[in-house]
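Structure request: NlpC/P60 family protein, Rhodococcus kronopolitis.
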Amino acid sequence: MATHSSKHSMRRVVLASALALGAVTASAAPAFAEPVTVPGIGTFDIPGVPAQTIELPVLPGLPPLPAVPAAPGAPALAPIVTAGEKAVQAAASKIGSPYVWGAAGPDSFDCSGLVQWAFKQAGIVLPRTSYDQAAAGVSVSTSALQPGDVVSFYGGSHSGIYAGNGEVIHAATSGTPVKRAPISSMPMDGARRY
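Returned structure:
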């Protein structure tokens, strides 16, 4: 009897885990239920979920289950975009905008103003000056840079946003508009992740 009970409990845990991980969704829809088959686990009636066989994520200690194609007409999952990637997109949208010392957008920028403005578009509040931007966040090594990391140059007096592929988007100096440049074109001090 203990074996049957533990198998039943394991099935509940796996199904609950699948629901939590988003492998299965169950809505509080009408009171009709069609069977959902989970290979190696069993068949369950879940209201609002059409009859189907689902794929569960591989859980440690359990063998992988066979893949199941998506339901016809099911929407494609949108890629996850990080706040850093949103900041890169915002900064990239301002390439060509004029450099104005002390400006923080939306039409002109200094270096830290561009960084602060771009992150604000991504929903993150950053300090205003390049020195404060270089001191906040979490330190990131050069080898671990990801798009959206704030890069500090010239002893902390200049900042930009790492755009990937060895490039940074920054508001350089008076007379030079916001641009994308090789990160190696300036002496880098460090990077921070927000």
